[in-house]
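step=encode ok
step=design start
structure_in=
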């Protein structure tokens, strides 16, 4: 299965919300996707397989950091390599625009943590009680793009 990433447009949002509600205990609302779509630095793509929306990815570019705010694959399409291929496609698109990708993930979300580790993310911090419904800590994970994490950190602190 080869995913194609397509700019998220308003007519995609009903399907996106359906997936969102199926995969998260505390799902984003329509306004959250609209907010991201309307931000100049927002990055919103749907993941398509044979003309069907099977997932999506949302993030924000802040200087040279890409913050991955949401990534989901519909339940029927999970564990088929789409999450991994989607992330790879996002990294390729960002190659010249971002030096590092950051994200938060629920401590109990083993599937996502496993995927992120396999894609080269490292755990950098824990945010206590970051999530509500249910209340849970977050892992903060970072992945450098075409640089070493230590080089990126020292550049940030030199500015
Ligand atoms: C996390 C998510 C995006 C992964 O997408 P996916 O298409 O199922 O992932 P892939 O098939 O590409 O799997 C890649 C790796 O992720 C891990 N993984 C994926 N699903 C898993 C599961 N159910 N249990 C354990 N590990 C899992 C495995 O390490 C897997 O590697 P493997 O195939 O060698 O075993 C998907 O499970 C999802 O949408 N979850 C709900 C939303 C979510 O939690 N998003 C992340 C928020 S931070």
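sequence_out=
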């Amino acid at each position: 299965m080869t995913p194609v990433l397509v700019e998220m447009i308003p007519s995609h949002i009903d399907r996106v919300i359906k997936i969102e509600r199926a995969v998260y205990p505390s799902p984003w609302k329509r306004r959250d996707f609209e907010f991201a779509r309307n931000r100049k630095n927002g990055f919103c793509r749907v993941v398509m397989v044979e003309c069907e929306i099977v997932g999506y990815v949302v993030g924000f570019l802040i200087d040279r950091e890409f913050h991955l705010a949401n990534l989901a694959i519909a339940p029927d399409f999970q564990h088929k390599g789409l999450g991994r291929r989607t992330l790879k496609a996002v990294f390729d698109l960002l190659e010249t625009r971002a030096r590092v990708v950051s994200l938060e993930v629920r401590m109990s979300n083993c599937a996502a943590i496993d995927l992120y580790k396999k894609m080269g993310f490292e755990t950098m911090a824990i945010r206590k009680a970051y999530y509500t419904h249910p209340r849970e800590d977050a892992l903060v994970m970072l992945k450098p793009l075409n640089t070493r994490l230590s080089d990126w950190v020292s550049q940030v602190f030199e500015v």
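step=design ok
step=annotate ok -> The chain is about 35% helix and 35% strand.
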